[in-house]
Write a structure and sequence with these properties.
Elements: H1 3-18, E1 21-26, H2 40-48, H3 59-62, E2 71-74, E3 80-89, E4 92-104, H4 108-113, H5 119-128, E5 131-132, H6 134-176, H7 184-192, E6 200-207, E7 210-217, E8 246-249, H8 258-261, E9 269-277, E10 280-289, H9 299-343, H10 346-359, E11 365-371, E12 376-381, H11 385-399, H12 403-408, E13 413-417, E14 420-430, E15 433-440, H13 447-469, H14 482-485, H15 488-498, H16 503-510, H17 514-528, H18 533-543
Parallel strand pairs: 4-5
Antiparallel strand pairs: 1-4, 2-3, 3-4, 6-7, 6-10, 8-9, 9-10, 11-12, 11-15, 13-14, 14-15
Helix pairs in contact: 1-6, 6-9, 7-9, 9-10, 9-13, 9-18, 10-13, 15-17, 16-17
Length: 550
């Protein structure tokens, strides 16, 4: 049943109980229900005297601060009274009950003596109207107060029901449509749907310098993007489990929230949700309002569920992408081994090792050194010749008299080259021939992964160099230069293919559709005469076409 129909039923019951004409209006005086128990006097007041005195139609004109109980007010005509009662919904007077019209017993004689326009109608109505003593008026005030409480509960309950339905729909969307929460921006957008008064949402994540705002939603919140968050911000002290949502009121008056105030944002109510993985907060989601003094309690568990689910989706997506990269890199490693077998030259094999290592993008540069008859130094990326030469001299100093030790203990290790951290992998080829492959690491957290790939790459390279030394043969590849066969856009796609990018990643990098990427790849395969990516990567390495040699 619609809420207005429920209010009408309640109103009809209390009109019968109090013998008053009753209707419910909003704060502007617009009727919400039809008048119940319309008396002749009420009809005159409502429809005849309306133009002369309509204050009872505009409760805001009569309302004063602190008015919480029903009160007797003028009904628009001398001596006539009505009752006005506020209806509170979630702590705010949103509707008003008008109940009337009656005459106070002690003033009826005065009213009857006053001349009125349309005297015949008014005289008859006044004569029929009961004059109520103070005790009866007080009883009616009590009944109207009960009615106001019931109406407030009905309206509040209906709103909560509607809100919970909306919350349920949010959860359903999150479960059935993973794309709705795929990414911090989409997660914040969904969270703001919890309440129309939420005018800001932001995601805070950890970086090397501290905590930074990584995503925002809402007009003013946009200016916080990329800003470092003060360590005083309360959630940053909640880093130990158990981690729960935190609710704050009057946040703008709390010095710990000065980060927002300094940027012109004064939140009244705010909820902070932890994004937890493995009992550790990996980020914080903040929602708040500059207009709402309080937010529904249900938003805390609902928002926490959405944040946690969205965070797990993000980790799953990252894991899927990482797995795809692993498969692509393993495939590339296999094909590079095949290409090395064709090359059969130690220096060229070392160069291919360096090129593959820089493609893994653990850092800004790679340096490969082969020591034998003469020292060969190959470097790729942001490393100068002088820096590479200094590193080569350091390798010769450390390993030059310990070849046997290199042969016995080829253990990867982290080492400083200038002010950079590198993963250094020593390798032994044969008597008098040894080397080092060093890869710069931007993040030491990637050291384990780098160790696996660098060790595998070095093992393949050493095997191929030993095979070359034993006189293993291979067939040289004789094809035209790729740039002569492919268009500029196809060369762009080829470059990203060799780096191990998926079709979607190529699409995003080149700002073209996935369908267009597939067409370019098909054309590349046809022009070069290969059947899959692995063959293509092997061919590129054989031609040494991707990078200029140093």
């Amino acid at each position: 049943m619609a809420i207005n129909d429920l209010l009408q039923y309640v109103q009809d019951a209390y009109a019968s109980l109090t013998e008053l004409s009753i209707m419910i209006v909003d704060s502007s005086g617009n009727p919400v229900t039809k008048v119940s128990n319309m008396t002749e006097l009420a009809e005159l007041v409502l429809f005849v005297a309306k133009k002369r005195a309509s204050s009872f139609f505009c409760p805001e004109e009569l309302a004063v601060d602190g008015w919480r109980r029903p009160a007797v007010v003028p009904a628009g005509h001398l001596g006539m009274k009505s009752i006005m009662a506020p209806v509170f919904v979630d702590g705010r007077a949103e509707y008003w009950i008008w109940a009337g019209v009656f005459i106070e017993e002690e003033t009826k004689w005065l009213i009857c003596e006053q001349p009125v326009s349309d005297a015949r109608e008014w005289t008859a109505a006044l004569e029929q109207a009961d004059a109520l003593p103070a005790r009866a008026i007080e009883a009616k005030l009590n009944e109207i107060e009960k009615m106001a409480a019931i109406c407030g509960e009905l309206i509040g309950g209906e709103r909560r029901k509607q809100r919970y339905n909306e919350y349920g729909q949010l959860l359903k969307t999150a479960v059935t449509d993973r794309a709705a929460l795929n990414g911090a921006d989409k997660l914040l957008h969904q969270l703001r749907k919890m309440d129309e008064r939420l005018d800001m949402a932001l995601y805070i994540e950890k970086c090397q310098q501290g905590w930074v705002v990584a995503a925002t939603s809402g007009g003013k919140a946009g200016q916080l993007y990329g800003k470092m968050v003060d360590e005083l911000f309360p959630p940053l002290s909640f880093l130990e489990p158990p981690l729960y949502p935190a609710y704050f009121q009057d946040a703008a008056l709390d010095p710990r929230f000065s980060f927002f105030v300094r940027h012109g944002i004064r939140p009244k109510a705010m909820i902070v949700y932890p994004a937890v993985y493995g009992r550790k907060a990996e980020g914080w989601v903040v929602v708040g309002s500059e207009t709402a003094s309080s937010l529904p309690e249900a938003m805390q568990p609902l928002g926490a569920a959405l944040v946690q689910y969205g965070h797990l989706l993000a980790r799953c997506a990252a894991a899927d992408a990482k797995m795809d990269r692993h498969f692509m890199r393993l495939s590339m490693l296999i094909e590079i081994g095949r290409a090395m077998r064709v090359v059969q030259q130690e220096e060229e094999i070392v160069r291919m090792m360096a090129e593959f290592a820089i493609e893994l993008a653990y850092g800004d540069f790679v340096c490969a050194i082969l020591c034998g008859g003469k020292a060969v130094t190959v470097h790729e990326g942001a490393i100068s010749d002088e820096m590479a030469s200094c590193y080569r001299d350091d390798v010769l100093r450390r390993y030059g008299r310990g070849i046997e030790q290199v042969a016995k203990n080829q253990v990867p290790a982290l080492r400083q080259v200038g002010d950079k951290t590198v993963m250094e992998v020593p390798f032994f080829v044969r008597d008098g021939h040894y080397g080092v492959l060093a890869v710069h690491l931007k993040e030491t957290d990637e050291a384990k992964e780098a160790e696996v790939y660098m060790t595998a790459l070095v093992s393949v390279g050493v095997m191929m160099m030993n095979g070359a030394a034993q006189g293993g043969g291979g067939q040289a590849v004789n094809v035209q230069m790729l740039s002569e066969q492919l268009t500029a856009r196809e060369m762009d796609v080829l470059e990203l293919l060799v780096q191990g990018c998926s079709n979607r990643e190529i699409s995003e990098r080149l700002f073209i559709s996935v369908h267009t990427v597939k067409n370019h790849i098909t054309n590349i395969f046809q022009k070069i005469g290969v059947n899959d990516r692995s063959q293509l990567i092997a061919l590129v390495y054989q031609l040494s076409h991707r990078r200029q040699r140093h």
